[in-house]
Design a protein that fits this description.
Helices cover 23% and strands 21% of the residues. It is an alpha+beta fold.
Length: 204
């Protein structure tokens, strides 16, 4: 797979990339290798996560060689200036369901954003109608994939706080995760922990 190089383009090229371009680049990427697929299965990720989401919609996962950069960013091999590593690539969408960024994830759970435009994966679910009152927040990207992307994973707590302000109660995976969310999200949301039904965070 070859992603068109933009080394000779202006440094602000990322600001002008449109959703259609992101979708096209994502479509050009390779499918996950057999080794990557087997790794996901060893991490108990549902194989269906490679192709569909929890609603049965197409939610393909791709693969590419990327250079991981400081600040949780990455470059594709064509634009890399250092060593590259194979990574799974996930498409991230905005609140309207439009392509807005790409996420690279390594086997150890390390993640990075290509454009740095999104604060969380699953933004399109935040204010959409849902069957339950709570919005599920996953502790890891692999957990999010295993749930076929039902729920969200937070990349930037500060920016995510704004997007989640009117999302209703958040459901953490356990007490420790719930406390971390309440600490990290600056607008102090209401958080429900599944194992302690009715427990909600408070300023105390």
């Amino acid at each position: 797979m070859i992603v068109p190089s933009s080394k000779d383009a202006p440094t602000n090229r990322y600001f002008s990339i449109e959703p259609e371009e992101i979708a096209d680049i994502f479509t050009m990427l390779d499918k996950p290798s057999v080794a990557q697929t087997e790794l996901l299965m060893s991490l108990a990720v549902d194989p269906s996560a490679l192709s569909i989401d929890w609603l049965g919609n197409e939610a393909t996962i791709r693969s590419a060689k990327v250079e991981f950069l400081p600040g949780n960013r990455f470059e594709f091999e064509a634009d890399a200036h250092g060593d590259t590593l194979p990574a799974l690539i996930i498409d991230a969408k905005d609140e309207f369901g439009e392509h807005c960024d790409l996420v690279a994830i390594r086997s150890d759970g390390t993640w990075a954003l290509w454009l740095g435009r999104v604060a969380l994966l699953g933004l399109e679910q935040v204010n959409a109608p849902r069957a339950t009152e709570h919005l599920i927040v996953h502790a890891s990207l692999f957990d999010c994939l295993n749930a076929l992307r039902k729920g969200i994973f937070i990349f930037d707590p500060d920016k995510a706080s704004i997007a989640l302000e009117c999302a209703g109660p958040l459901r953490s995976c356990d007490v420790e995760h719930g406390r971390k969310l309440f600490k990290d999200l600056t607008r102090q949301p209401s958080i429900v922990v599944p194992k302690l039904q009715g427990w909600r965070s408070s300023n105390g």
